Amino acid sequence: MKNMFNAADKKEIVARVNSLSASSHRLWGTMHTEEMLWHLRSQLELALGIIPQTTHVTTYMSKPIFRWMALYVIPWKKSLPTAPEMNVKKQNPAVQNLVTEKQLLLQRLDEVEAASDLEGHPLFGKMSRDLWSRLIWKHFDYHLKQFGS
């Protein structure tokens, strides 16, 4: 299974991020390209503890079997809800231009890869680096497909 800490998988994702342009339009959802890049970066900043988690949901999704199914088995539907910390419409961040958002995202991606310990996830709870790596890859893939990349 693809994951973000595999060099070939990361290289593919980085190329897809870099292929985004001002003419990249969403195929579903409400975010613009720059907002989507901010959204992906916010996931990485949650993992790094830069953005504090305000949501700690204990649901069936935090149980290992369901977390595994969400990360490895079940395809993600379009327009899934997101954690408030990552919701660009609720956070109303000062989103930068496309080039800057790409740079910031890829910088955070390198930081996550280099980190020895990552924080828990608002929905999935405490996760290993391997699970984070899979989640990050699947999340990036989902949104890059959303923008045709």
Name some characteristics of this structure:
mainly alpha, DUF1569, globular, 6 helices, DUF1569 domain-containing protein, 149 residues
Please describe what this structure looks like.
InterPro entries: DUF1569 (IPR011463). The chain is an all-alpha fold and 149 residues long. It has one domain. The chain is 52% helix and 0% strand. It contains 6 helices and no strands. It has helices at 7-19, 33-48, 64-72, 88-91, 98-114, 129-146. The longest helix is centred in the last third of the chain and has 18 residues, at 129-146. The protein is globular. 26% of the residues are buried.
Write the layout of secondary structure elements.
Layout: H1 7-19, H2 33-48, H3 64-72, H4 88-91, H5 98-114, H6 129-146
Helix pairs in contact: 1-6, 2-5, 2-6
Please give the share of residues in helix: 40-55%
What is the CA–CA distance across the termini? Answer: 19 Å
Structural category:
mainly alpha
Q: Helical region count?
A: 6
Tally of DSSP β-strands: 0
- Largest sheet, described in full? none
Low-confidence stretches: none
Tell me the Rg in angstroms. 14 Å
Question: Which sequence of SSEs, written as H and E, runs from N to C?
Answer: HHHHHH
Mean pLDDT across every amino acid position: 89
